[in-house]
Amino acid sequence: MIDSQAYKQVLGAFPTGVTVVTALDADDRLVGFTASAFSAVSMDPPLVLVCPSLGSDSYPVIRRSGRFAIHILGHEQESIAYRFASKGSDKAEGIAWHRSTHGNALLDGAAAYLECRLWEDYPGGDHAIVVGEVQALRVATAEKADPLLYCRGKMGKLPPTLSLMAATA
């Protein structure tokens, strides 16, 4: 048997970016969750995956609507990451966002985003493995493109040697 705390500690030693996945419910309300379980799957067709908890309020919305957006958060969006990591229906209150031409809820200020159509949905233990086909994408300008990182339970910036902001200065 694997100790759950040791498992979390080992996985937490792997630095990742921080994403927020959003969708619009049947009443056009923004729902979403914070995820570090995000990965590219395929170049042709362009597929990515994200792994929502089965208990997430957003997961059923993604399944019903068939579309979602993955935001790679910028280094100044830590408060948004924590907001969408919480439970509750008012996560988007006070957060700037707009509806895209593809019908997705896009958070303003993200370092990058991918708009996806639900490609497939697989079981993955207490999470789902949601594969999306990328329909549109965008990366921010250099001064806003540095992502928020997560490692060992903490969030932070890229070191200066990896920062686009330092590279363009």
TrEMBL record:
Keyword Oxidoreductase assigned: yes
SMART domains the record matches: Flavin_Reduct
Protein name: NADH-FMN oxidoreductase RutF, flavin reductase (DIM6/NTAB) family
Molecular functions per Gene Ontology: FMN binding; riboflavin reductase (NADPH) activity
Chain ranges of the Flavin reductase like domain: 11-157
Taxonomic lineage of the native organism: Bacteria, Pseudomonadati, Pseudomonadota, Gammaproteobacteria, Oceanospirillales
Pfam entry (one): Flavin_Reduct
Family affiliation: Belongs to the non-flavoprotein flavin reductase family.
Keywords: Oxidoreductase
Gene3D superfamilies named among the record's database cross-references: Electron Transport, Fmn-binding Protein, Chain A
Annotated PANTHER family: FLAVIN REDUCTASE (PTHR30466), FLAVIN-DEPENDENT MONOOXYGENASE, REDUCTASE SUBUNIT HSAB (PTHR30466:SF11)
